[in-house]
Amino acid sequence: MMSVKAAISKIKPGFYGYQVFTGDEKIAEDYDYSRIADVIKAIAGDVDESHAVELSYSHFVVGTYTGLELDFRSEEIAEMVVERMGRLHGD
Description:
Structural class: alpha+beta
CATH class: Alpha Beta
Number of helices: 3
Strand content: 35-45%
Order of helices and strands: EEEHEEHH
CATH topology: Nucleotidyltransferase, domain 5
Number of strands: 5
Shape: globular
CATH architecture: 2-Layer Sandwich
Strand order of the largest sheet: 3-2-1-4-5
């Protein structure tokens, strides 16, 4: 199973983007999303469903998921990201 890293970033309030890497090679990026769940779905579309994807947000690792899990659990994972970031930032 190939290992992939995907980083979600907040561009400005209400706008998110992502980059996907295999090793040092960037294989995908996009910066035009208003919901974290949509970013996660887009990442799932850029990787093979069996790839292990280490997902991070704002330099914090959220977890490792297969592309298939990212696709089917995007809403759940997005809620977890928002909850964790809120706790880290005292929201």
